[in-house]
Amino acid sequence: MASKENKTERLRAIRDEVWNLANSPLYKYRIENKYYPVLGEGSHDAKIMFIGEAPGEKEALSGRPFCGAAGKMLDTLLESIGLLRADVYITNIVKDRPPGNRDPFPEEIALYAPFLDRQIEIIRPRIIATLGRYSMQYLFPHLDLASALKPISALHGASFEGKTSYGSVTLIPLYHPAVALYNGSMRETLKEDFKVIQKTLSSH
Ligand code: URA
């Protein structure tokens, strides 16, 4: 098993590469706005990894994932199943903020996804929870589950066994916590779906 130092070094190498990713269409916007790339945060030995979409403004200004309103919602959902941020690893598929929080373009996802792949390989989570449809649409085929992919409304809160180079991983697609900010019934749906994580964690 990889040592802690080794994992940290390998994650740092990813950070340095993304930091210098001048060929990204989002690089100039980052520099002009004095933004940071957002790599991820949490335990390098986390059993569960949460993967969102892309940093918003608060995240890009601080370099930390999910530190705005959607992040507060994520914290509440984690708390509801007895987890702290320090217990999990949180990242995004796209590591730089798209202008005005627009949806990421396919070419941006294609450019940043290999960094996510490497983060998964280093952290080796047993459970991956996708937050929103972008990370879900990427992870299903990536974990050899292409044939199971459907709209998020049909898949949220279900669990799937995916394949990685280090063994099987449970993939749990979830709605993005931002959808729960102004919609009480979505909040309840997300709360129910988080219980699936709790159940899965206790069986691993
Ligand atoms: N939304 C995301 O998808 N990721 C963040 O880090 C913040 C908001």
Explain the layout of strands and helices.
Elements: H1 4-19, H2 27-32, E1 41-42, E2 48-52, H3 57-62, H4 69-80, E3 89-92, H5 106-123, E4 127-131, H6 133-142, H7 152-155, E5 160-164, E6 167-174, H8 184-203
Parallel strand pairs: 2-3, 2-4, 4-6
Antiparallel strand pairs: 1-3, 5-6
Bound molecules: uracil.
Residues 38, 52-56, 59, 65-66, 70, 92 line the site of uracil (URA).
Key terms:
204 residues; alpha/beta; Uracil-DNA Glycosylase, subunit E; six-stranded mixed sheet; 6 strands; binds uracil
Shape: globular
Q: How many helices in DSSP terms?
A: 8
CATH architecture: 3-Layer(aba) Sandwich
Mean pLDDT: 97
Order of helices and strands: HHEEHHEHEHHEEH
Bound ligand species: uracil
Structural class comes to alpha/beta
Distance between the termini: 18 Å
Number of domains: 1
What name does CATH use for the topology?
Uracil-DNA Glycosylase, subunit E
Radius of gyration: 16 Å
Please summarize the sheet with the most strands: 6 strands, mixed
Strand order of the largest sheet: 1-3-2-4-6-5
Helix content bin? 40-55%
Report strand %. 5-15%
Give me the count of strands: 6
> In the CATH hierarchy, what is the superfamily?
Uracil-DNA glycosylase-like domain
CATH class: Alpha Beta
Low-confidence runs of at least 5 consecutive residues? none
